[in-house]
Design brief:
single chain; alpha+beta; 12 helices
């Protein structure tokens, strides 16, 4: 805006000189020639009028210039910085003698203005003036680039219009081009010391924007002094409102900014970034904030964001550097991400949940596609995030607090407070991507967690009931999902009470030992698949898994059941997606279960749990040696009981 004001002011000043010269009855050609000389002395650029020149004196001074050109910088991408099809000015006679320049009519037809920045960062609106008459060469450039109004000089504009034309902004450093065209603007300026009002419409990227703007005291803007500005842009895509102060020739900007619209999807489509989303997602949006930009740092305070039914608040600051620096504190409120997840992910999960019991499980295959996490090195961040509730697919969490820090390709995600599934916890994830293979470490402690809904919602595993503690300290490295699984190392501990393991009834399998006692092994069901109709209740379930290269080994798995005691050991091979576990069940003889004083029957039944994840088998371990030992043990136990009964 300040640039346009300067350009208009320079043109008006030049035209004033033209009119004053006209009163001295100099020819139009001479007037244009003299003005061109003055412009070149002031800016180092030439001003040319290639078309017809019309000058009339009655009823008012009138000047019409056609095909006006203002030269570009010597290293510019085209010869002219600005061209005008026509410039039409009418000035009342009385204004010349009053000392104030009042313009009845000032019309610019089809301006074509180029604002460009060279590859070295130099702007073409910065004028280089050679000043051979002074030895202070180091300061002459800065003085020449500033436009200063003469004392007591003022302008009053009547009918001021820009009809058609375009403004091109070209950045050779970033290789970007932006074009604003179909200009249809009207200007109201009672005085340079009173507010300037601009209204009308422009077109940007094939969309028309209605414009309302005002600048307090344009004289301050022209003289590079702080000034305030109001701006409103209205369109079918979005409405933008800004009110604030501009200082230091646009290097220091502050004020209140608001943006709102009816569709994020339509806005992204306009920017060439089509977004596929559900009908209820990414629609109405709004952003309101107090902002300040200075020294390449954008500070946003009192941020209020609304998106559909979501509402966020917070503050942030962004430093334009390499890498980008972002700091923030964001409150996400009640965050339901389900409407914003891809349809495919929701559909796949729903189909998986519905078909689990009906369709044969498929083998689990880890993806070995290379992951690209290099974008993490493009930003250094320190962000605190909190939410009162969080919903992601079937996962439901209560109040949570996160602290995210990234620096030079390393990220730390600290779960400061976790509330969900009737429990709480904390943890940290560290990711290092500054070199390959990427490295990830994670350490979490969760307490009083309700296992079934947590594991069901998170990974679709609904076989474990109960509440308890869960903790892990794991690390891995790689460049793909398969790598991360194959290089997983660390420890996982758990302890649950008053629950059940669904899918297998270890007590029933162990009780089938009555058939083994008689030697009738053929009557024993030696194979069992997981079935949701079966379960093993427990008063306590606990264990520790040590992971090495993706293989989890345990030697202390234990389960206490009213009728059996279970001890387990073995491996869960994550890379090969298979397991080989052995549990030993010991029967509780009394129907009083855990309350019995002589609870143990002495009969121990080894049970194998093995196979690929999609087809796990559960069977008693009845090798010939085991059979004989079990048979002898049971017979001895029966014999002892008979002796007690019959003497």
């Amino acid at each position: 805006m300040r640039i346009f004001i300067k350009i208009i002011a320079v043109i008006v000043v030049i035209m004033a000189l033209l009119i004053v010269a006209a009163t001295q009855l100099i020819s139009t050609e001479d007037i244009v020639k003299q003005v061109s000389i003055k412009v070149e002395e002031s800016t180092g650029r030439s001003l040319s009028v290639d078309g017809d020149k019309e000058l009339s004196f009655f009823p008012s001074l009138s000047l019409v210039l056609n095909n006006v050109r203002f030269a570009n910088a010597s290293d510019g991408s085209r010869p002219d910085m600005a061209t005008l099809d026509q410039l039409n000015i009418h000035i009342p006679w009385l204004s010349i003698f009053s000392g104030e320049l009042n313009v009845d009519k000032f019309v610019i037809v089809n301006p074509n203005i180029l604002l460009e920045t060279s590859a070295k960062g130099k702007a073409n609106w910065q004028f280089d003036i050679a000043d051979s008459g002074t030895s202070e060469q180091s300061t002459s450039k800065d003085k020449a680039t500033a436009v200063t109004l003469p004392e007591n000089f003022d302008i009053s504009l009547g009918q001021v219009e820009i009809q058609g034309g375009k403004l091109t902004m070209l950045d050779h450093q970033n290789k970007t081009t932006q074009i604003i065209d179909q200009l249809d603007l009207a200007v109201l300026l009672p005085s340079l010391k009173q507010p300037l009002h601009v209204s009308g419409s422009i077109r940007y990227m094939d969309k028309v924007f209605e414009l309302e703007s005002s600048v307090t005291t344009p004289a301050e803007a022209i003289n590079n002094q702080p000034f305030t500005i109001k701006l409103a842009l209205l369109s079918e895509l979005a409405n933008v409102n800004y009110e604030g102060e501009i200082k230091e020739q646009g290097q220091d900007i502050s004020g209140k900014l608001s943006i709102s619209g009816d569709s994020v999807k339509a806005l992204l489509q306009w920017q060439g970034m089509p977004l596929e989303a559900k009908e209820e997602a990414f629609n109405q949006f709004s952003l309101a904030t107090s902002m300040h930009f200075a020294n390449n740092k954008l500070t946003l305070n009192d941020i209020a964001v609304d998106l559909d039914k979501l509402a966020f608040t917070g503050l942030a600051d962004i430093t334009l550097s390499e890498p980008l620096m972002v700091n923030g504190n964001i409150d996400l409120g009640i965050l339901d991400l389900n409407p914003y997840l891809p349809e495919s992910a929701i559909a796949e999960q729903a189909a998986s949940n519905n078909d689990k019991a009906e369709t044969k499980s498929e083998p689990l295959v880890w993806d070995d596609s290379e992951l690209d996490l290099s974008a993490l090195s493009l930003i250094n961040a320190d962000i605190k995030i909190q939410s009162r509730q969080l919903f992601v697919q079937d996962i439901k969490l209560g109040e949570n607090k996160l602290a995210i820090k990234t620096h030079n390709g390393k990220a730390t995600i600290n779960l400061v407070d976790f509330q969900g599934y009737e429990g709480q916890g904390s943890g940290v994830i560290e990711v290092s991507t500054n070199k390959k293979p990427y490295q990830i470490t994670t350490k979490f402690e969760l307490a009083k967690i309700n296992a079934e809904p947590l594991l069901t919602d998170a990974v679709g595993f609904d076989k474990l009931l109960g509440k308890g503690q869960l903790s892990w300290n794991l690390s891995t490295k790689g460049i793909s999902q398969r790598d991360f699984i194959s290089q997983l190392n660390g420890e996982l501990d758990f302890s649950f009470i008053d629950g059940a393991v669904k899918g297998v009834n270890l007590a029933a399998i162990a009780k089938s030992a009555t058939n083994i006692m008689s030697g009738n092994l053929a009557a024993v069901s030696l194979d069992s698949d997981f079935s949701n109709a079966e379960k093993t209740d427990f008063a306590a379930l606990q264990g520790t898994f040590i992971l090495s290269n993706g293989v989890a080994n345990t030697k202390d798995l234990s389960l206490d059941n009213p009728f059996i005691r279970v001890l387990g050991s073995g491996d869960i091979d994550l890379p090969q997606t298979k397991m080989n576990m052995q549990v030993v069940t010991e029967m509780v003889a009394s129907v009083q279960g855990q309350a019995a004083q002589d609870a143990s029957s002495g009969v121990k039944i080894p049970i194998k749990i093995s196979g690929p994840f999609h087809d796990v088998k559960v069977r008693p371990d009845i090798s010939s040696e085991v059979k004989d030992k079990v048979k002898d043990k049971v017979k001895d136990k029966v014999k002892d009981k008979l002796n007690k009964l019959f003497g």
